[in-house]
Design goal:
The chain is mainly beta. Helix content is about 15%, strand content about 40%. It starts with a helix and ends with a strand.
Length: about 280
């Protein structure tokens, strides 16, 4: 009993100290920037080839930039790079720079299960990566319902359904975009426990999603390696932003000029089904 009372008193003392601490900062107007360490500048190659169902997939975009300090207000773009993709037949698809750091191709030919190789020459370094274009099952339907949140408050929940193929192991990456989201929200799924069955995936936002909002669901089929890579990215992004990840999260892009000077990013080729849903 004495130990319990001591624990309670300590909690009250900590709560009081925390409250005073908050009030002291609330009365200040100065912004305090922490002196965070700055790592080595790295190239970032955002190379997603996404073939949306209902399109020919000819128009594709690759973005190249550099890492920047945490408090930097902008991301340095990399211009003047040479970017191309080759398929297993030897066909070459050239990406031309249309604006700083943005490279576009208008004649890409997507083929499910075909192998593709990325080539990037930027700032005196050569980078390569190889990946297969992965298929995805189409979204069957999207349903909306009202469900209680953890605190008992009613919220809107969206659920979309798709049939998982029974003859293969599948991995999926889904993002949700809307005007009430500053950044897309991502979710990863695999069919370890659902192989060959209908899979349902849910999305909600207890504070911002309202009737009249349009939520765009982009559902991708991805490789196992990219699934594992993206899982590490999501785990790191959901942790303390000032903490140090357990290790550098590296993708499949290799520097063939200097192996130690690797680039961030992952070359992936995904078939996707995209559905815009109007919240009722």
């Amino acid at each position: 009993m004495n130990k319990l009372k001591k624990y309670t008193v300590m909690n009250r003392a900590l709560a009081l100290i925390t409250l005073l601490f908050v009030f002291s900062f609330a009365s200040c107007e100065d912004v305090v920037n922490l002196d965070l360490p700055t790592g080595e500048t790295k190239l970032v190659i955002d190379a997603e080839i996404i073939w949306k169902k209902g399109t020919d997939g000819k128009e594709q975009t690759i973005k190249i930039s550099k890492t920047a300090p945490y408090y930097s207000g902008s991301t340095p773009k990399v211009s003047g790079a040479q970017v191309r993709i080759e398929n297993s037949n030897g066909d070459i698809f050239t990406f031309n720079e249309t604006e700083a750091g943005v490279y576009k191709c208008t004649n890409f030919v997507p083929v499910i299960d075909a192998d593709y190789k990325l080539f990037v020459d930027a700032e005196g370094q050569s980078f390569t990566a190889t990946e297969k274009l992965t298929s995805v099952s189409p979204i069957n339907k999207v349903e909306q319902k009202i469900v209680p949140d953890f605190d008992g408050k009613d919220i809107i929940e969206l659920t979309f359904y798709y049939n998982d193929p029974a003859d293969q192991t599948n991995f999926y990456v889904t993002d949700y975009q809307s005007s009430f989201l500053i950044y897309p929200e991502y979710e990863i799924t695999n069919d370890e426990f659902y192989n060959g069955n209908e899979i349902s995936t849910r999305f909600s936002d207890e504070d911002k999603m309202k009737p009249g909002n349009t939520v765009t669901i982009t559902h991708r089929g991805v490789s196992k390696n990219f699934f594992n890579y993206w899982k590490l990215i999501l785990e790191a992004s959901n942790s303390n932003p000032f903490s140090v990840p357990p290790g550098t999260i590296r993708g499949n892009i290799v520097n063939s000029t200097d192996a130690n000077n690797f680039a961030f990013g992952y070359f992936r080729l995904c078939e996707a089904d995209q559905v815009p849903y109007l919240v009722q």
